[in-house]
Amino acid sequence: MQKRRIKDRIFWLGAVDWDRRLFDSLIPLPDGTSYNAYLIEGSEKTVLLDTVDPPMADELMAQLEGVARIDYIISHHAEQDHSGTIPRVLEKYPEARLVSTPKAKELLSDLLQISDASFKTVEDGETLSLGDKTLKFMHTPWVHWPETMVTYLEEDRILFSCDFLGSHIATNELFVTDECRVYEAAKRYFAEIMMPFRSMIQKNLEKLAPLDIEMIAPSHGQIYSRPAFIMDAYHDWVSGAPKNMVVLPYVSMHESTRRMAEHLTAALSEQGVKVELFNLAIADIGKLAMTLVDAGTIVVGTPTVLAGPHPYAAYATFLANALKPRAKLLSIIGSYSWGGKTVEVLAGMIPNLKVEVLDPVLCKGLPTPATFKALDEMAVTIARKHKDLGFA
Ligand SMILES: Cc1cc2nc3c(=O)[nH]c(=O)nc-3n(C[C@H](O)[C@H](O)[C@H](O)COP(=O)(O)O)c2cc1C
């Protein structure tokens, strides 16, 4: 794809990765993604903001063919999907200075072995004049690495936010046209990448609030010409109470835990509690992460396998602990035959979660009427606690 004009002397460059289905060897990408770079031609200086993932470097280099000079390359984030092509750009434009936070300089030096002489580090709030256009750099740490920053182009009121506020979507439409679709993709992205840093995100949102923003141009997905859409969504995801909702990831080899999970789902429905049920043998882990953004309660369903939880249940629990969702309650249900330490192992895997652990419901073999009664009681307890906690 050729470079594309966004506004007067401001262009999108980069690559659309239609086929990519997995990110970080972990995260499913149902809609592919894009690596967005941007070119700004000031009256005196020209800058490139970020680059692309190295496998797509040729596309960026082809777009730069007609660009005679680049004075600055802005690196908002040192992760290789944005920074990995910087060495090639520096080879083509050896006079260009690489602008980053001091922390990003450290990371870029380690990850890409870029020499010290190329760097110009910038402090929080520092500006850089391109002649008739001015860049203002704002340090926004932990969205989602420690070195991240964003750039505000003052005259055009564009915020270049890199990973912050982005979404994984492959499309040839530069601007958001379908907010419902982008909401889903951005929420998935937030859940997988940003959720562990909720409090830092809140601080960064507050820091950006005074800016008069006409457009937000992230480094994945589409450009927002209605910034309030994504800002409001982020406010909702990081602050406020969770929802009256249970996320119930489970795995079952011989039906017992599945019957328990389905019974609990029905009992919670009777109590007016929304349930997101995931069979971990086939679940999209990204979708599970998305539901963790809102869940008031997490219930993990697992049989006992080799004296502990089924590995899929352990994986989901490990993931939930790493993502640090705002759920306030957690419990465990499942079936066993002769014994083990399933509950102890799972309970020991959630040090990051600030949850009250409700009594687990375990049964030997197939669930009995007593098992179902205990699950009914669990549903009543969850519904009551959600109400007391004000989860709507
Ligand atoms: C590979 C394997 C290992 C198991 N290890 C244990 C165990 O260590 N302790 C135990 O109590 N049951 C163990 N079981 C039995 C299951 O926990 C039991 O059959 C349970 O009811 C299965 O639940 P499910 O129907 O939800 O899969 C094991 C079963 C399998 C297939």
TrEMBL record:
InterPro entries: Flavodoxin/NO_synth (IPR008254), Flavoprotein-like_sf (IPR029039), Metallo-B-lactamas (IPR001279), ODP_dom (IPR045761), RibonucZ/Hydroxyglut_hydro (IPR036866), Rubredoxin-O_OxRdtase (IPR016440). The keyword Hydrolase applies. Signal peptide: none annotated. Residues 246-392 form the Flavodoxin-like domain. It comes from the Bacteria. GO terms for molecular function: electron transfer activity; FMN binding; hydrolase activity; metal ion binding; oxidoreductase activity. SMART domains: Lactamase_B. Pfam families: ODP. Keywords: Hydrolase. In the N-terminal section; belongs to the zinc metallo-hydrolase group 3 family. This is MBL fold hydrolase. The lineage of its organism: Bacteria, Pseudomonadati, Thermodesulfobacteriota, Desulfuromonadia, Desulfuromonadales.
